[in-house]
Each structure stands twice: as structure tokens, then as C-alpha cells.
């Protein structure tokens, strides 16, 4: 099982679950919106660093919110250390996850391309004959 699912993945999953709860309950910074989702966590192989990807809904200034989370990284790391039994808790680096935005943009581009298609389906079939 260890080769199929390395320890760094298991640690990343646990950190993701715990950070989601800690951010929701413990972070009182007004720059951090109430709806913050921990989208993914990537932990280095030596478990010393973790990249935490977050997404936010209805956040006017996402960069400021990510900066606030990076400022609270030490606090969150301490709280995380109390919840996770590890010798050393990874250093946390928060980043904004753009996957959802890009997905929405691509979806709207596809919808626009489909709606602007002026070639009728019947004409396409006749041209092939």
C-alpha cells in the first residue's frame, strides 16, 4: 500500500481536512472571507513544506486574503501541530487556486462558440454526400 499511496499524500489529505476546519473556526482576520475552501494541499517528499491551494467565493480582494492567510500560517501551523501527530509540521504556503475560474472561463468560451455556430446540421450532412 505504501507504494500506491505515499505518506506525503496521506499527510496532505489530513492537513487539508484539518486546515479547512481551522480556517473556518480559528482565523478571525477580517480580510479572510467566510467562505474559504481548501482546494488542495501538496506536501514535499520530506514533509517539510506544504503548498495550500485555497479558493474563495465572493471575495473582492483575493490577493489580500491570501496574504492574510500567509500571515496566519504560523498560527495555523501551531494549531495543526496540536491536531496532527507528527514530529514536524510542514511550513504552510497559501496560494490562490485558479482552477475553478479557468474552468468557468473555458465553459463560457465553449458555450459562446456553440451558440455562434451558424452552420445548420442539415447542410453539413448534404456536403458530405
Kindly list the characteristics that best describe this protein:
single chain; GMP Synthetase, Chain A, domain 3; flat; alpha+beta; 129 residues; three-stranded mixed sheet
Tell me briefly what this model is.
This protein has 129 residues and is an alpha+beta fold. It is built from five helices and three strands. Strand 1 and strand 2 form a beta hairpin.
Secondary structural class: alpha+beta
The fourth-level CATH homologous superfamily is K homology (KH) domain
Helical residue percent band: 40-55%
Euclidean distance between termini CA atoms: 56 Å
The CATH topology: GMP Synthetase, Chain A, domain 3
Radius of gyration: 21 Å
Average per-residue pLDDT, rounded, comes to 85
Shape: flat
Give the ordered list of helices and strands.
HEEHHEHH
* Whole-number total of structural domains: 1
**CATH secondary-structure class:** Alpha Beta
Beta-strand portion reads 15-25%
CATH architecture: 2-Layer Sandwich
Model description:
There is one protein chain. The protein has 129 residues and is α+β, with helices and mostly antiparallel strands. The protein has five helices and three strands, in the order H-E-E-H-H-E-H-H. It has a three-stranded mixed beta sheet. It has a single domain, classed as K homology (KH) domain (GMP Synthetase, Chain A, domain 3), CATH 3.30.300.20. 19% of the residues are buried. The protein is flat and about 65 Å long. It is 51% helix and 17% strand. The model has no long low-confidence stretch (mean pLDDT 85). The longest helix is centred in the N-terminal third of the chain and has 20 residues, at 7-26.
Amino acid at each position: 500500500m505504501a507504494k500506491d499511496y505515499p505518506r506525503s499524500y496521506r499527510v496532505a489529505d489530513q492537513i487539508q481536512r484539518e486546515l479547512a476546519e481551522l480556517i473556518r473556526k480559528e482565523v478571525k482576520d477580517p480580510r479572510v472571507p467566510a467562505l474559504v475552501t481548501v482546494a488542495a494541499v501538496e506536501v514535499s517528499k520530506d514533509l517539510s513544506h506544504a503548498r495550500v491551494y485555497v479558493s474563495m467565493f465572493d471575495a473582492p480582494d483575493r490577493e489580500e486574503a491570501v496574504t492574510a492567510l500567509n500571515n496566519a500560517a504560523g498560527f495555523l501551523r501551531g494549531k495543526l501541530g496540536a491536531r496532527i501527530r507528527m514530529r514536524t509540521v510542514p511550513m504552510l504556503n497559501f496560494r490562490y487556486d485558479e482552477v475553478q475560474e479557468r474552468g468557468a472561463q473555458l465553459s463560457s468560451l465553449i458555450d459562446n462558440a456553440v451558440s455562434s455556430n451558424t452552420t445548420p446540421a442539415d447542410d453539413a450532412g448534404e456536403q458530405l454526400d
